[in-house]
Amino acid sequence: MAEYVPPEQQLVPALYVSNLERSGAFYRQLGFEVLRRDGIFMELRWERAALFLVELLPPSAPPPAVVGNLRIMVADLDAHWRRVQELGLEVVQPIVSRPYGLREFTVAGPDGLNLRFAGWIKNPSGPTGVE
């Protein structure tokens, strides 16, 4: 099948948020870049990956439970761990090594979507496995 758009534009998650300013500030402090803000819409970028935030109107209460997590691959997991500690964010899962070749941790995010930062476990053969 022919490529219609670049891969980083093919699948872009759009998250419904109860407060666009609060959610945007949360993602920015972790390293996301704001590309665009139009009313109730915000486009964020992590390297080449896009994330859309859409504020629900009228404002609604956050979901009562976690709805999932968004994995972010990083080259220096320890640097991101230190940043999360400095920011005082709620850690859902501290750093752990997984049998599928990733070392990762998870922080609580706004509106029921957590962020899971992960990096490949270093070994002589390079990255292994696919989650």
Q: Domain count, please report it.
A: 2
**N- to C-terminal separation?**
24 Å
CATH architecture of the largest domain: 2-Layer Sandwich
Shape: globular
Placed side by side, the strands forming the largest sheet appear as 1-4-3-2
Let me know the average pLDDT: 89
Topology-level CATH name of the largest domain: Signal recognition particle alu RNA binding heterodimer, srp9/1
**Could you state the order of secondary-structure elements as H and E?**
HEHEEEEHEEE
Q: Report the uncertain regions.
A: none
CATH hierarchy, class of the largest domain? Alpha Beta
The major pleated sheet works out as: 4 strands, mixed
How many helices? Answer: 3
Number of strands: 8
Q: SS-based structural class? A: alpha/beta
In percent, how much strand structure appears in the residues? 35-45%
Estimated helix fraction:
10-25%
Radius of gyration: 16 Å
Please give a structural write-up.
- With 131 residues, this protein is α/β, with parallel strands linked by helices.
- It has 2 domains: 1-61, 2,3-Dihydroxybiphenyl 1,2-Dioxygenase, domain 1; 62-131, Signal recognition particle alu RNA binding heterodimer, srp9/1 (2-Layer Sandwich).
- It has helices at 7-10, 20-29, 77-87, and strands at 14-17, 33-38, 41-46, 49-55, 68-73, 91-97, 102-107, 113-120.
- The longest helix is centred in the middle third of the chain and has 11 residues, at 77-87.
- The two termini are 24 Å apart.
Task: Please give a handful of descriptors for the protein shown.
about 20% helix, Signal recognition particle alu RNA binding heterodimer, srp9/1, 8 strands, alpha/beta, 3 helices, 4-stranded mixed beta sheet, about 130 residues, 2 domains
